[in-house]
Automatic annotation (TrEMBL):
Pfam families: PsaO_TMD. InterPro entries: PSI_PsaO. The keyword Disulfide bond does not apply. This is Photosystem I subunit O. The chain crosses the membrane at residues 64-84, 115-133. Keywords: Membrane, Transmembrane, Transmembrane helix. It comes from the Eukaryota. The gene is PSAO. Signal peptide: none annotated.
Length: 145
C-alpha cells in the first residue's frame, strides 16, 4: 500500500503539471492580449483594445456634445405642429397631458389615459436620437465611413 502511494505521489495529476509551468506559447499569448491593436477588416478599420481580466471603463466612448445635440435633434422636430389631424405637436400634447395629470397629483394617470401613449412616443424618439447620435459620433471618430 505504501508503494502505491509513493508511485501516485511522484506522478503529477493529469493536466495540472503543464498548467503550473508556464509555457512559452502561453506567455507569448498573454503578452499579445495585453497590448492595444488595430484590427483591420476589408470593410472597415476598427480600433480595439483587449485587456485580459479588466473591463474598459470608457466602453461607451462618449462625448459631451452628443447629449445636447441629440436632445435638440428630437425636441425641435417633435415641436412641429403636425401630429395627427389635431394640428398640434407631440411636445405640446405630452406637456399638456403632464399638466393635466399634475392637476390631480396624488392620484396617478389611468391605464387608458393618453398620457402613456404620449410619454412612450416622446421617450422612444428621444432615446432613438440619443442612440443614433452616439453611433454617428463614434463612426465619425473612428473614420469607418
Amino acid at each position: 500500500m505504501a508503494a502505491i502511494a509513493q508511485i501516485n505521489a511522484a506522478k503529477p495529476v493529469c493536466g495540472l503539471g503543464s498548467a503550473l509551468k508556464p509555457s512559452s506559447k502561453l506567455s507569448a499569448f498573454k503578452g499579445a492580449a495585453l497590448r492595444s491593436s488595430k484590427v483591420s477588416t476589408p470593410a472597415a478599420k476598427v480600433s480595439s483594445v483587449v485587456v485580459a481580466g479588466k473591463f474598459d471603463k470608457d466602453w461607451l466612448n462618449s462625448n459631451g456634445m452628443v447629449l445636447p445635440i441629440a436632445f435638440a435633434g428630437w425636441v425641435i422636430p417633435a415641436s412641429i405642429p403636425a401630429f395627427g389631424t389635431t394640428g398640434t405637436s407631440l411636445n405640446s400634447l405630452f406637456f399638456e397631458s403632464i399638466g393635466q395629470e399634475m392637476a390631480h397629483f396624488p392620484t396617478g394617470p389611468a391605464v387608458t389615459d393618453d398620457f402613456w401613449l404620449y410619454m412612450i412616443l416622446w421617450h422612444f424618439g428621444l432615446f432613438m436620437c440619443l442612440n443614433f447620435g452616439q453611433i454617428g459620433y463614434n463612426i465619425n471618430k473612428d473614420k469607418i465611413w
